[in-house]
Amino acid sequence: MRLGSVAGVIGSLSPNRLLGIPLAALRDPLGRFNLATFFLSLTIYSPILVLYYTGRGLSLFQVLSLEAFMGLATILLEVPTGVVADRIGLKRSVTLGFFFQAVWVGLLVLAREYWQFLAGYAVLGMAISFRSGASEAWIYETLKARGEEHRMSQAHGAFWAASLAGRTTSAVLAALVVREMSEPSFVLALELSAAAMLLGTVLVLTVPNRQTEAELARQRGSLRLVRDGIRLIRAHPALRRIVALSVLADPLPYALLFLFQPYYQLAGTPAALYGLSSAAAAALGALGARSAFGLERRLGALRAFVLANLLPVAGYLAMAGLAGPYLAPLLFVMTYGAMQIRYPLIAALQNRHIASYNRATTISVVSMLEGAYALAMKLVAGYLADIDLRLAFGFLALVPLVAVSCFPLRVEQLESQELSAAEGSDGPRNDD
């Protein structure tokens, strides 16, 4: 009955669309990649995961430590997996990332002891690392092979939206699958999620690899790929500025996902709106990610990027000063949704300046910096939230605002300046 209900929801969304993606679009390899990402994001277990852990004997401290351990594992593995992606192929790396995420969910079903959960979260960190830089690089290389690099914000926006649509759908499926707070229901949610991730892995295998300089990457050697990536970021003025903004102006949506629940408690928000607003925030985020390309075309890349960074700042400031039973969910949904606009724009900006042969490695270096920064910022925001939630929101607004003010972009820095392998190795002249 439950499986039939789930299938009914999936099958009845639209006669001409599959899970929100037009059937005709699936002929495009990037359309299939987006569908695979949708399946990967079907985390039906999300609403009950903490209850599942505590039911298996974990304390709340141990539960929170799993997330911290996963973050640390991801940071440590980002660059090595980026090198692997450049050397063995972007497709293979992404496929491994999808597969290991399904394995992680399977390990959660089997785990009974704390150390077993820790081992599972090490696998999750590896899964995320294999996918992160390689997915973005794969999208750009596919567009580059078509001569459509200018569509990166559109393609990455569709990819990002597919992930957020998966989270939105997960909330609906969780209501159908988890009808009682019992271990069998929790395990069923995990098993269905793992099956969806394996289906996503199969779909990834149908997408052709478009790595244009894989042989050159293998010839350069692993350490050389990393050195070239770091040297490029340090010596290339435009890329250095973009990376600084990517890291320091990050609005940290995962911090907001941890803080919105105490914010709702403070505002007296009805319990029914907790889950509904989470789904609405993910849905609005998907629309925001898809709108990034249109915003870039209407306003220009520079104005669109500045606006995409200032909207979350305005949202945090509003949340710091306002709270009401129904106003709080509205502000959360709008703030979280607005955050998603900047990520496709950032992906488009930074890939214009990175050479193909070490694209995944360089992106992974940036991801490592972002992960380390986010880990520190979440700790500070959590400390401030214990004192006063308004301080945390004000802090999360102030830092990106200062970053955008201190590292302003110029129009000429947004133009494509992709370097050859030789230039990337030696580093361009610093004329900033």
TrEMBL record:
Pfam entry (one): MFS_1
A Gene Ontology molecular function term of the record: transmembrane transporter activity
Keywords associated with the record: Membrane, Transmembrane, Transmembrane helix
Keyword Lyase annotated: no
Spans traversing the lipid bilayer: 33-54, 60-81, 93-111, 117-139, 159-178, 184-207, 272-289, 301-320, 326-349, 361-385, 391-409
PANTHER family per the UniProt record, alphabetical: PERMEASE, MAJOR FACILITATOR SUPERFAMILY-RELATED, TRANSPORT PROTEIN-RELATED
Protein name, UniProt field: MFS transporter
Organism annotation: Thermalbibacter longus
